[in-house]
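Page 47, continued from p. 46.
Same chain as before, 352 aa.
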Amino acid sequence: MKSTSSPKPKDRRQKVKGKRQNRQKRMSQIFPFAFYLLPLIIVCPFLGIPTLLRAADEKSAQLKASVDNTTITVGDVLQLNVEVMRPEAARVAFPTIGPQLKDWVIRDSVRSPSKEAGPGRFSESLKLQLTIYKTGDFEIPPLQVEVVHPNGEKEVLTSEPIKIKVQSVLSGDQEELKGVKAQADIPPDYKPFLLLLAALGALALIIYRAIQFFKNRKRMEPLTYKDTRSPEEIAREAIRSLLARKLVQKGYLKEFYLELSEIVKRYLGLKLGVPSLERTTEEFSRDLRETAVPWEEFQIIKEFLMDCDLVKFAKYRPSEEEIDRIVQRSFDIIDAAEANRKTEFVAQEVAK
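Result:
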């Protein structure tokens, strides 16, 4: 009986080596094709993503709220722009905002017409003028805008709150107010003949003007600039210009209070028909009392003028808070007078 002998170890190693070589040969044939195919396999799933994102973006609306400045001074006007990017067929409903927006006073609001902002995209904006009469860190609250799509679907967009820093009329690095400078000494005039020379020059000018007048009998209508602004706009602009001159920071408290009181008296004079030029507080208050100003408002105006006189004539040195408060009181007097004016106008229309 024949016995079968097992393969020798050398033969087994040759067979294993042959299989390994065949596998490597097949891999070397597949690898070049896979090398060029692999980038295409990786990129293909992402080729449609930008298109899908653009399509989704074109169907949705976007809301952006921005301001022209994040640091203002009390009483300054802040510009707020609320802009909506929408599809062409969508419609935008901005919120109805009253005279107050939390701590902020709405001075004016204007809605801009829609304009094209790209293929199939339109832009609409609501511009608000805000002001505040307090100091510190504040924020403009979020605003909600409703967008109605052609299929009737409503999309509500909410803006991010915007932080605003409101500074005092006094600079933060000023620890105390500077003292009022002493009045300069005017040296005596030792040359009186200069007065005589000036008088002769004035006389010569008068004679020359008289001769010219009689030669030219035609009167020319004087060109005068007519200010078309309302008394309220003139007064508010005058107060802002006064604050911009920084008289308080320079130590000119008396001049600051004098001009502030004159602005308020001039405004009330134009508004109520009361003479205000070169009038003392007592004279102006007496004439003001004879108008249709309510008693409570009259007391507020009189106290304001007396507080200004205290600094102008009694050399009283107010604190920083008192200065901020007197500025805010001047704006409050203007606001109250305008509110009373609107109430009287409505009452007259109802009576008609």
